[in-house]
Amino acid sequence: MNTATVRAYATSPVSVAVDRACLCAQVAADNKARDILVLDMRGQTSLYDYFVLATGISRRQIHTLAEEIDAALRGVGDQRLSIEGYEASKWVVQDYGDVVVHVFSPETREYYRLEELWDDAPRVDWERG
């Protein structure tokens, strides 16, 4: 059962991938995620355009972040293609095609260090408003 709160983040469908990635980051911030980062992956891989990375400090917060991000994207007409890791709650990955959202526990984020692995990917200023 999805218990996410539907908030009005946008009033019309958001079709541009960077805008949807920034929406994910904003929803994560609204739900007190830490170390939020949006990476522009277009020059790195042809599989997706943007990574959104965020850290939750507890299982409950990681679940909330995943659910709230999904609710916000559904609210602008997007549909999640897949989700992995929800039950274990150490690293939840949500695939929206051109945007992939990673929500980590602090330990898992430190272990995988995706921002270092993809160090050549430009950072997106998701707070640009």
Structure commentary:
This protein is α+β, with helices and mostly antiparallel strands and 129 residues long. It has one domain: Beta Polymerase, domain 2, CATH 3.30.460.10. It is built from 4 helices and 5 strands; from the N terminus they run αββαβββαα. It has a 5-stranded mixed sheet. β3 and β4 form a beta hairpin. α1 packs across α2. It is globular and about 30 Å long. The protein starts with 16 loop residues before the first helix and ends in a 12-residue tail after the last helix. About 4% of the residues have low confidence.
Topology:
Blueprint: H1 17-30, E1 34-40, E2 50-55, H2 59-75, E3 82-84, E4 91-95, E5 99-104, H3 106-112, H4 114-117
Parallel strand pairs: 2-5
Antiparallel strand pairs: 1-2, 3-4, 4-5
Helix pairs in contact: 1-2
For the biggest β-sheet, the strand order reads 1-2-5-4-3
- The percent range for helix content is 25-40%
Indicate the mean pLDDT. Answer: 90
User: Got a strand count?
Assistant: 5
CATH topology: Beta Polymerase, domain 2
Alpha-beta content class: alpha+beta
Q: Kindly report how far apart the N and C termini lie.
A: 32 Å
Q: Profile the largest sheet.
A: 5 strands, mixed
The shape is globular
Treating each run of at least 4 consecutive H or I residues as one helix, how many helices? 4
Q: Outline the low-pLDDT stretches.
A: 10-14
Order of helices and strands: HEEHEEEHH
Roughly what fraction of the amino acids lie in strands?
15-25%
Number of domains: 1
CATH superfamily: Beta Polymerase, domain 2
**Mind telling me the CATH class?**
Alpha Beta
Radius of gyration: 13 Å
For the record, the CATH architecture stands as 2-Layer Sandwich
